Structure prediction request, 782 residues.
Amino acid sequence: MKRIACLLLCLVMLLPLCACHGSRERAAFAVPERFDTSRSYEITFWAKNDTNKAQTAIYQKAIADFEALYPNITVNMRLYTDYGKIYNDVITNIATDTTPNVCVTYPDHIATYMTGADVVVPLDALFADPNFGFGGSELRFDGPEAGEMIPEFLAECRIGGVSYAVPYMRSTEACYVNKTFVEKLGYTLPETLTWDFVWEVSEAAMAKDADGNFRLNGQKVMIPFLYKSTDNMMIQMLRQRGAGYSTPAGEIEIFNDTTKELLYTIAGHAKTGAFSTFKISSYPANFLNAGQCVFAVDSTAGATWIGTDAPLLDISADKLVRFETAVLPIPQFDPAQPVMISQGPSLCVFNKDDPQVVLASWLFTQYLLTNDVQIAYAETEGYAPVTAKAQQSAEYQDYLSRAGEDNREHYAVKIAATKLLLENTGNTFTTPVFNGSTSLRDAAGQMIEDVTKSVRRRQTVDEAYMDKLFSSVKSLYRLDQISAAGAGAPAELGPLPKTSVLLLSALGAAWVLIGAFAAVGAAGKKKKR
Amino acid sequence: MKKVLALFLALAMIFALAACGKAAAPAATEAPAAEAPAAEEASGVMSYADYVAADLDSYVTIEAYVQAKQSWWDNKATIYLADADGAYLLYDANCSEEDYARLVPGQKLGVQGYKSEWSGEVEIVDASFEILAGDSYVAAPLDITAMLGTDELASHMNQAISVSDAVVADKGDGAAFFYNWDNSGEDGNSDLYFDIEVNGGVYTFVVRRYLTAPGSEVYEAVKNLKVGDKVDIEGFLYWYEGPQPHITAIVVK
Prediction:
């Protein structure tokens, strides 16, 4: 009886070991040998558009064309206009195992998604699969070969040496300049802007007449230099200066003397009113188009909103002024070696129990890299296609050559912005991706926003202010809690839960008792002997 | 002894089961709370006239009444406020989800923050507030029908407003409304934009999904509008590069 009880007890003891794998684990994805077309699949695609109906229409057409090729796959699209909302929704849905199948994303976000095991499908095996990979023999469409993916863009989707996404579109930032104003102030635009030039011209633009109107535009409003994404502004300035931001492993380096020096410079020009930001004032394009701005930095993917003849406008016609728009790389510290950020949406595939569903998702993802989709979507804004196949196609080259023929499809500013990226792909960079890199990016921009707001509010920006700023931003974005364990590493887990402490204590106590029981038994035997 | 051992093992089993719950998903990003204005900056409560006269980026202290709650996210709330003399938009004020749930129209708030302007919309940002005991006030909508297209309209920014006998205009391709400003959105996750014609001018009004969500009476009513419908409208006078009221009610006549 005792032996049976002992056996049962041992079996029961094994149960917790089986249970302690956390929540239901999903097997890692393995590429199926064949795609089972006898079954029907329904996949969800969370897409992002730039509140641009042409982009919505391209997604819809891509889905219809894909479904015609694969009648057994239905794609349900959900549209977003904000990457942050997609990010938050994905995270919420990881917990309930209801992630989409395919999702527009940024690698920074994927690093967080990957804190759940086997949530995002590693794509290298799919890339290389002879049947369903790039240029695969079983594909029903003419997708890019592996060698036709732009290597810089593909490399941006690798986290810890593994590809977790494919690039979908790429853009960078451009400085859109009211050239008419620059020349009116007596300056000549250089081929590549420097920060010194932009600051100098911006301060010159602040001169007012006796009535309090700005001499340059005769209006009460003038913000000569406006930056849309202050995250990018700080990141690019640091990169250009060769200063620390983070290591590839996730060590935070941003709180350094160069950052402080840059913030002092920015604060100085914000104090005179020569500089402001999107978050504080509004879209740079609105001020530029109203003749209230000289230098507007925004994404090349926002080019259709820029300029006197822009096809998209947010200000009323009576506020629009005529001027010549120049599209230049962002300001540089060393114009001989321009450096700019690479950005733009990528696509990731979420793992599911059924490998056939994942394969269907991958097929749709890859379809979005075909020339039909790439060229059509890139032409909606100042985006660059992510494949050489699309970039070098006769259709796309013809599009680029027709800049200025009209103010819609061939809008000159939009095509100039695209060319800026195409000509500078080798000068682009991205920041290291790790769990927490999204927070670091937010913090980088927040420091610029904070100093700008502070000087506008007549607060003193000095060493004490900077120390407090560094400390509060570090704390608010939890940058002091990011582990430097490497890309995709889980964040600091904190203290053990009470239940775990109790479990470990009870197990320890049980072993002590077992030991004591054995010792007492042995002693008893000795006595008997 | 064996009983004690069995008891410990049983306890260990229970804790093991408790510990092996579903692994937590990564937390959604929370925006850090903006730093509250320094206490020494606080001054006396301003009248609406004082507030209007205050410079942009200056520190303001007001008392006003909740008119409508627009949104809450990551401990930030956006709220329409008013007093008997005018109205305010409290944008992204520090607010816990619990406090937001406690807010009801008419409730009096004490607010401290910075006066700011974004695309023409004058608002209070980086603010904190407290719920004050006392009286209650909900402003009657101001009829702005005759003011549309005039400079006078801006002086009523953020107020509860009404427009009567407006005619729904063609937004494009015969549509009475768009999902998002250019029809790039879709039902359920988009604001609704529609144009009305009044006194020979055409003006854009918006159903802001954060203020009046899909499924609300006004959201569904606008989806059923037809070009040429004559309507009465109520809402709040939001501003984006010009008047762009956020509507809360619409009646087809």
